Please model this.
Amino acid sequence: MRKKALSVLLTTAMVASMFTACGSKDSNSNSSTGGSGSDKNHEYTVSNGGKVLNIYVWNDEFINRMKDHMPGYVADEKDPLLGTLDGVTVKWTQVASDNNAYQNNLDEKLQKQATAAADDKIDMFLMEADYALKYVDSNYTVPVDKLGITADDTKNMYKYTKDVVTDANGQLKGLSWQGCPGILFYNRAAAKEVLGTDDQAEVQKAVADWDTYVATAQKMVDAGYKMTATSNDTYRVYSNNVTTKWVEDGKVNVDANIKKWAEDTKKLVDMKACGTADLWSDDWSAGFYPTGKVFCYFGPAWLINFCMAADKEGSIAYEGGWGATEGPQGFFWGGTWIAGCDFTDNADLVKKIMINMTCTDDILVDIVVKDNDFTNSKPVMEALANGTKKVQDADGNEVEYSSPVFGGINPLSFYAKSADKIDLSKLTGYDQGCNEKFQQAMKNYFLGECSYDEALKLFYKDIKVVYPNLKTE
Model:
């Protein structure tokens, strides 16, 4: 799996394509979505007996999860976008996320959902955190209790994973098999060289808060390392730990922790502790290898396992050279949620997939072991983290879970601690555009092309293009 940055910029053309039933959890009306949100009195229409189970995805991650872990699912040997489950044909529609193509295609189909032919109705689709609200706060997604999934079924899930997909009326409208708490990954060889140790507890002391982190960055620079590859590596950690919303009373609000990111990052860029290249660029990924001379990255399990060249000989991950610790603040990044659609004619199969893939302990453990993912059950993750839950090694022996990219240590306790700290109470439907535009504007400040105040004015100007209904200054 290769995840792209979960922040595809909202353009006015894209906003115009959003279906009108969408809304926002923000208390103010979000004109970019053009409607009042889901109707708590809406009568959802779900049935059974469909001959084709249509699932919309943007990549093959969930296709492979189903093939490898879903009981009874049989993948077609010739066509990866076909399979069968309980005698029903499973048809995958895969549209890449580039240029918002996935959402645009999905929106067009959902608007025709009520009148579509039986075999063409979307039964379920996947969505990511940064735009989940768009679909959750609409009548196109079915509350899971309408499918027969109970609070007892989901009781072990991390709270934030349910908060992401709970609509303004308190209805849970999606489930995820994974949690995406983020931690700090550090280059153990660099830690030994500069800090004198790669011990997790000692490294944590060197990154315990942002002021200490900046001080440690100077030590890394003095030794010939960058602290992080780019200025944006730390952004999501700061933005996940705000105390105010991006939009309050219809006005754009820059939280103190967002301002601190700009302040700290300016220091880091000036001391050459990080560059200003974009995430996913060659400059960003250079630190996956020892020659890149980068001390740390911030991310969830999917980042290091699927994006940091873990399968490439000579990379730090391939050699088991990364360490793991909590970092300055807990955060999350991304995640994939399964949503059932109104008018599905395969409601029981949608329920079966959701229950098996997100609520069944043995399957969740299997996903951790085989896919190096962090799954969405607090008791399961804690048991794997503390060793009370054993897994089988290649020879069939029961052993404690460990990760080869971390040199055989168990990083799950750090993920679990981060997951417990995630607070989404400040989430709004404006976050995607605000986060993206703020980072873009501040790059001018980091490069010394303008002052912070001038960069802030540029941000306000740009955000008015995306969200013309908002007040700025």
Q: What stands out?
A: DSSP finds 18 helices and 14 strands in the chain. The CA atoms of residues 308 and 445 lie 29 Å apart.
